[in-house]
Amino acid sequence: MNELRYVYAVTRPFGAALPKDLVGVAGSSPYQLRHHELAAVVSDVPATDFDAGPLKERLEDIDWLSDTARAHEAVVATLVSVGSPLPLRLATICRGDSGVRRLLEAGNDRFVRTLERLDGRVEWGVKVYARVPASQVSSPAPTRLRASTDQAPGTGRDFLRRRLGERRQEEHSWQSAAVVARALHAELTSRAQATRLHRPQQAKLSGASGQNILNAAYLVPRDDSADFIGAVNRLLPDEPGMSGEVTGPWAPYSFTEDPSDDNPFAEVDASDGDVVGEREERR
Amino acid sequence: MTSTGSDPLAERQVALVDLLDRLLAGGVVISGDLTLRIADVDLVRIDLKALISSVSAEVPSPWEVGP
User: Fold this and answer.
1) Nearest CA in chain B to A104
2) SS3 category, A139
3) Do A62 and B33 count as a contact with CB atoms less than 8 A apart?
4) Residue ranges covered by each domain of chain B
């Protein structure tokens, strides 16, 4: 029985059909399920992968997770190109159409309010990386060290002094990188309607060279995007050892929680307080 | 809407880490019994062992195209 529904996003009902070749998670075909003044974009997914038990295991499989995340984003990105969807978190799954309707019904007020707040907005991601010149710090050391051993007196002290100087320089590089990143973030924040700081990405995961010192998301009216990106490109650090990157436009994934709403879950389901335990504040 | 030469999005696939920043830490979270209770797997914590052990080799450096 194919009764599980993967829910990608909540939107206003839309007239246009989704592209025929749009592929959702697990190769499924997304469609619109309307309920009163809202619609959910969903697709039918097999219980073998998406029922609670197997899903938990699948999510630990990086290839599966990656494929699923990309398919989720592909569907949401398509919706962004025609409207302002409210994206749901990865792996939101309901039982049957009735489950989806209940979801829309229960969250109606919150969805409507959030759709209004985010209408016509997109999210841009901006990251800044700093590379402290490791080669500069360590490679000249051996030669200097050799030089000092030739002149025996004072060796240890000179060496320590040099190390200290190098460390200060290293620290200085970090500090100035941080200053540049903070200034950029402040400027972009003043141009955005909302801001969210994501945790800096580990180089191990991103494969990036350099340390990620700013990983921010900005909520910007779609129509102002060109100006915003223009500003980003003007302001991105153009100094040795630093680099930046822009991603987007994204659906406003990072802004689905209303900042003025203390407990956005309460009205979706007041009966169940033990939810995800993960009500993490903007990080 | 990729507006500049330094914007590599046109040619490059979105990096998995950027995707997961949003899909695991963003998006509307539905609580209670309205959805399957995989919520018990705190998705954010997937970051995880799986990722760390296998992503790095597969994800192309977003950094090769720097401004």
Assistant:
1) B34
2) coil
3) no
4) 8-58
Q: How far apart are CA A51 and CA B38, in angstroms?
A: 9
Cβ atoms A276, B41 nearer than 8 A: no
CB-nearest to B56 from A89, A207, A277 is A207
Q: Name, in order, each residue with C-beta under 8 angstroms of B19's C-beta and a sequence gap of 6 or more.
A: A69, A70, A73
Low-confidence ranges of chain B (pLDDT < 70): 1-12, 37-67
Tell me the pLDDT band of A34, cut-offs 50, 70 and 90.
Answer: very high
This model's pTM is above 0.80: no
ipTM of the complex: 0.78
Torsion of CA A59, B31, B17, A193, to 10 degrees: 170
SS3 state at A247: strand
- Chain B 7-46, CB below 8 Å of chain A: which residues? 7-9, 14-44, 46
Which pLDDT score is estimated for A127? 95
- Which of A6, A38, A89 is the best residue to mutate to test the B interface, defined by the most B CB atoms within 10 Å of its own CB? A89
Q: Which residues contact A60 (CB under 8 A, 6 or more apart)?
A: B46, B49, B50
Question: Where along chain A do its domains lie?
Answer: 4-119, 122-251
